[in-house]
Description:
Elements: E1 40-45, H1 49-64, E2 68-69, E3 78-83, H2 90-106, E4 112-117, H3 124-131, E5 136-137, H4 146-149, H5 155-158, E6 171-175, E7 177-178, H6 189-193, E8 197-198, H7 201-213, E9 218-222, E10 230-231, E11 234-235, H8 236-246, E12 249-253, H9 262-270, E13 277-279, H10 287-292, H11 299-312, E14 317-324, H12 331-344, E15 348-353, H13 371-394, E16 400-407, E17 414-419, E18 424-428, E19 436-444, E20 449-453
Parallel strand pairs: 1-2, 1-3, 3-4, 4-5, 6-9, 9-12, 13-14, 14-15, 18-20
Antiparallel strand pairs: 7-8, 10-11, 16-17, 16-19, 17-18, 19-20
Amino acid sequence: xxxxxxxxxxxxxxxxxxxxxxxxxxxxxxVSRPENTGKTACIRTFGCQMNVHDSDRMRRMxxxxxxxxxxxxxxxxxxxxxxxxxxxNAVNRIKGHLGELGRLKREGRVKKVALTGCIGxxxxxxxxxxxxxxxxxxxxxxxxxxAEFVGLPTMQETHTPELxxxxxxxxxxxxxMTGCNYQCSYCVVPSVRGRMICRPLENIVEEIERxxxxxxxxxxxxxxxxxxxxxxxxxxxxxxxxxxxxAPRVWFTTSHPSNMEDRTxxxxxxxxxxxxxxxxxxxxxxxxxxKIMHRGYKSDRYRRKVEVFRKEVPxxxxxxxxxxxxxxxxxxxxxxxxxxxxxxxxDSAYVFKFSPRRGTEAIKMEGAVPEDVVQKRFMEVLRxxxxxxxxxxxxxxxxxxxxxxxxxxxxxxxxIGETWSGHAVHVNTNASPGxxxxxxxxxxxxxxxxxxxSA
Length: 455
Ligand code: SF4
């Protein structure tokens, strides 16, 4: 695993994840699509859930413009690389894709290439434009300009922040804020996504109502620091409460410990339809490192938040992000992190080795930690997290759970679902995504529970 600079939960490259917006026929009622023009487009998404969501928006634009979506470069007239900048070698990886696309362009297969997302917003994009045959470069703020590029009448008609996401899908991401007002030493988000902008509450709720009417049952509120959301005296807790009155199932990510209010934690425990999983990135257990990173809180504050969460949401799951080997991290700092892991008993964590990113403060910092030391610390953190998670998951064995199916059964007959407490479950069932099944947990590993469908 490599370094992540953002608090947005960093998933593996999302090109490996089941696409979110393959729209069923029922969604066509909401959008008047032109006749199929015979043109094809392939969107390749890298990085976090914000990028998945941005890709959904772009997907709507290309479908509106009469393209059909294809899965391989060879079949595509237009290829959109929606990129992530937070991983080590991110730019090199994209160069590999651009090289391949250059070859396909020369052979007359691919006609246009668009580079979007965080690399599109970065300085490197200029160099990439010079080196490769790229037809359009967009950052994270102006993805709407893709509309004009694919021949939609005007930008304004499609540039609607309230653009419905994935109507007809069982689950959808709804962006409630973009950007970030923090300045964490290692993070590119403030420079590529800008300062925080919050969407108005009514606008968010209207979008969710439309999604729910269209069949969506699971809403994930999305933002770099969702719990920093504000509007006219209203705070994130007010928004979450309101959304929970409209959506059948709600979750949110990612939170910042400085913004997380006790009343939000209480609300998670009180409302049955809020998924009882909190993703609260801590990054380090050392106050010294938290200060160097400019995280804005001390480890005791974090521990107190976790205490409140465990009290208010006794059945909930807690996940976090941890960066190992940030410049100037000492062995004692690392020990502090291990202590915090023991104290908090995380159910899961994204553990990242520090990776210097251009445009961040940390790239200029002295005191780099040698690679072999980083590797050793990384393994220690990982083992500690997994040990805790395994012990906690073992306690679920024998319980009967209501499981929300997220991904349909595979060839072995196993579907992937999620309990209300936020545990991932592999369950034998024919149920479709969006359905609930009841099942008994038979066994558990550190990352996942296993169940037979008892429905
Ligand atoms: S709080 Fe903001 S600056 Fe800090 S890691 Fe998260 S997104 Fe980056």
